[in-house]
Automatic annotation (TrEMBL):
The chain crosses the membrane at residues 467-494, 523-541, 547-571, 583-601, 639-663. It comes from the Eukaryota. This is Uncharacterized protein. PROSITE patterns: ABC_TM2, ABC_TRANSPORTER_1, ABC_TRANSPORTER_2. GO terms for molecular function: ABC-type transporter activity; ATP binding; ATP hydrolysis activity. It comes from Adineta ricciae (Rotifer). It is found in: Membrane. Residues 9-251 form the ABC transporter domain. GO terms for cellular component: ATP-binding cassette (ABC) transporter complex. Residues 420-664 form the ABC transmembrane type-2 domain. InterPro entries: AAA+_ATPase, ABC2_TM, ABC2_TM_bact-type, ABC_2_transport, ABC_transporter-like_ATP-bd, ABC_transporter-like_CS, P-loop_NTPase. It is a multi-pass membrane protein.
Length: 665
């Protein structure tokens, strides 16, 4: 035995629990493991005994609850250590591959992450494709068989020729000939370049394929352990993994003095103390662009969604109701206008685009039609209308009979507030115009019927404000915000579920690098989305933007970033798409309703109004309204506050997501 050899992996009294302290299950019990450099170390044990968990702890994905792990004398993740990073090649149990990528694109992604040169990547790709008997490198991963996908996954782990290889059941689905070749290669890299390999294998499967003397050794040890588990009546999931070394010649008992201690970095901070690396961001950007390239239809869909949403909003919301059907019972006309035909003059002043009158000869019939929902209301004009109105204005008669007869009587279906409001408004306006015309025809000054209020030129806005101008800017912000939440949360949760995120993390990528690259790629997509929104809302549907369009676009864009960080937060605690949908839907609607987008916050009960300040949309929505309707610039406090609040929410979401992701280790 060569006593001078250092240890590649040393685990001392490692314990690992899953779950929280009130409901935790111990998976690793006080495990001690010493793996010298340059050997193949077999990690054996029944299914569920914790082999994968141990490997994840070794590569720095999980923290031990107690005990210590040292890799080449340093803690995983310590400063300057390339584990996680280039020094470790990890092949997880699941394939963890981008299904729409070609073999070459997949390998190039990891090559770039490990900062390999193009030449280096190409020569390794050629070698690995030949060595692992893979089809053409342009073939898509999705089109490969299960075994071929497994080999691509192995190729990704071998690519950068790391000094530590962690392979979780690498030979599953591989035929015996190739398995032999892989074993030979592993033994060869152990001997020639002192690579340390830790490999898990499921001994029941190995028993089935036991065609190697070494596997028989595994099998023998496994049976011993199985007996021990049964003797001690241990639940399988609580049993520590068994370990054995393949080339037992190289075994060396641990010499703790040889371990160069390094300070253990703080768990949460570790990821963020590392300055983002340009080559990793670049690798992630190219990866994201490849994802987009392989799904170009989805990209167009991303542009189409905001356009469809804003167009539908502008088409369907805020416009004045038109062609409202109303029943009319004009008793004056039915009685052949006994005192004159001022009722016709009145009706002609009522906007016929908005109200469509249908005349009835019978009052009860007309009222029934309203009751049956065929009309929004009934307008009744009584006999002697003309005489009564003359009496009222020229003889100043104000007895109830004169007042009743000189009025138009409305029996309305008031179940729809907007329709009721429109009917009343249109008829009131029509009546006012009729009165003015009537008075001036009789030589009176029509302004006598004006109410004693003069609305001067508005300071902001127009004399005829539109609901669309009030609601559309807020809607535009929320469209981009909600889209960014959904897409980001789904992208990350799918990557997490398929083990892709974990694989990238083990390749040394940090959450900041992932977010940076995501924002950079989304930057261009979102710019196009925002431009399309403005073009459709402002130039096609004529939503008013009195202030700077650029400033409005910047705010909408920033709100999109806020949505991305919120999406990241959702994905940090959700495990699958279903949960994302539930959380996104459950939080998006309360935000939409309480942020004053659809109805002024001034109309809310005081508690709700107070709470509305705490949605990420309220202040930015107010800010964009100030830009759009008042033409305010950045110097106004309500505008810069909107920018400040959305940036603060983004930062807060990002920090909480990062902490949650770190805590989940
Ligand atoms: N995220 C998790 N939360 C809770 N329990 C978990 C989690 N992951 C694994 N476990 C449990 O921990 C135990 C060990 O799991 P692990 O995947 O490490 O086993 P394994 O030895 O690799 O199994 P196999 O050989 O089937 O892959 C199992 O009982 C499993 O149910």
């Amino acid at each position: 035995m060569d006593q001078s050899k250092e240890l590649a992996v040393s685990v001392q009294n490692g314990c690992k629990n899953y779950g929280h302290f009130w409901n935790s299950t111990r998976v690793l019990h006080d495990i001690t493991l010493n793996v010298p450099i340059g050997i193949i170390y077999g990690l054996l044990g029944p299914s569920g005994c914790g082999k994968t968990t141990l490997l994840r702890c070794i590569v720095g994905r999980f923290e031990l609850n107690s005990g210590e792990i040292l890799l080449f004398g340093k803690h995983p993740g310590s400063y300057g250590h390339e584990i996680p990073g280039r020094s470790v090649g990890y092949m997880p149990q699941e394939n963890a591959l981008y299904k729409n990528f070609s073999i070459s694109e997949m390998l190039h992604y990891f090559g770039r992450l490990h900062h390999m040169s193009k030449k280096e990547i190409l020569s390794r790709v050629e070698f690995l494709i030949h060595f692992l008997d893979l089809p053409l490198k342009t073939r898509k991963v999705a089109q490969l068989s299960g075994g071929q996908q497994r080999r691509v996954s192995l190729a990704c782990a071998l690519l950068q020729q790391p000094k530590l290889l962690i392979l979780d059941e690498p030979t599953v689905g591989v035929d015996p000939l190739l398995r032999e070749k892989i074993w030979t290669h592993l033994i060869e890299i152990c001997q020639s370049s002192q690579t340390t390999i830790i490999i898990t294998t499921h001994y029941i499967e190995e028993a089935r394929k036991a065609n190697r003397s070494l596997e028989n050794v595994f099998l023998h040890l496994c049976f011993n352990d199985q007996n021990r588990i049964e003797r001690e009546n241990l639940p399988i999931s609580f049993a520590n993994p068994l370990t054995t070394e393949v080339n037992t010649d190289n075994f060396l008992p641990m010499n703790t003095n040889q371990i160069k201690k390094s300070s253990k970095p703080k768990k949460i901070l570790r990821d963020y103390l590392v300055f983002p690396k340009l080559h990793k961001i670049l690798a992630l950007i190219i990866k994201d662009l490849t994802v987009i390239k392989t799904n170009i239809g989805f990209l167009f869909f991303q542009f189409l969604i905001p356009v469809i949403q804003v167009s539908l909003f502008c088409l369907c919301i805020g416009r004045d109701p038109k062609a409202l059907p109303m029943a009319l019972f004009n008793n004056e006309s039915l009685n052949n206008f006994p005192t004159g035909n001022e009722s016709l003059q009145l009706l002609s002043q009522i906007n016929s685009d908005q109200i469509h009158f249908n005349s009835f000869n019978n009052f009860d019939q007309a009222l029934n039609s309203v009751k049956q929902g065929r009309y929004w209301g009934l307008a009744e004009i009584r006999t002697n209308f003309t005489e009564a109105i003359n009496d009222k204005f020229f003889k100043f008669q104000t007895d109830p009979l004169t007042l009743n007869t000189s009025s138009i009587h409305l029996y309305l279906d008031m179940t729809n507030q907007q329709v009721t409001f429109t009917m009343q408004n249109v008829i009131l306006n029509g009546t006012e115009m009729f009165l003015k015309r009537f008075l001036s025809e009789h030589g009176f000054d029509p302004s006598i019927v004006n109410p004693p209020v003069i609305i001067e030129n508005p300071i902001y806005g127009s004399l005829t404000p539109k609901f669309l101008n009030f609601a559309a800017p807020g809607m535009m912000i929320s469209i981009i915000y909600f889209l960014a939440i959904g897409l980001t949360a789904l992208i990350f949760v799918v990557e997490k579920k398929e083990g892709l995120l974990e694989r990238s993390w083990i390749a040394g990528v940090t959450i900041i690098e992932i977010m940076f690259s995501h924002i950079i790629v989304k930057f261009f997509i979102q710019i196009i989305q925002v431009v399309l929104l403005i073009v459709f809302a402002h130039f096609i549907f004529e939503v008013e933007f009195k202030g700077s369009l650029l400033l409005s676009m910047a705010l909408i864009f920033l709100q999109g970033i806020c949505g991305m960080t919120y999406g990241l937060l959702i994905s940090s605690f959700c495990e699958n798409e279903m949960q994302v949908m539930e959380v996104a839907m459950g939080s998006v609607f309360p935000m939409l309703l309480s942020s004053g987008i659809l109805w002024p916050v001034e109309g809310m009960p005081s508690v709700m109004r107070f709470l509305s300040h705490f949605t990420p949309l309220t202040y930015p929505v107010e800010a964009i309204r100030c830009i759009a309707a008042r033409g305010w610039s950045f110097v106004y406090y309500k505008v810069w506050l909107g920018f400040l609040i959305t940036s603060s929410w983004s930062l807060a979401f990002f920090i909480i997501a990062a902490i949650l992701l770190a805590l989940k280790k």
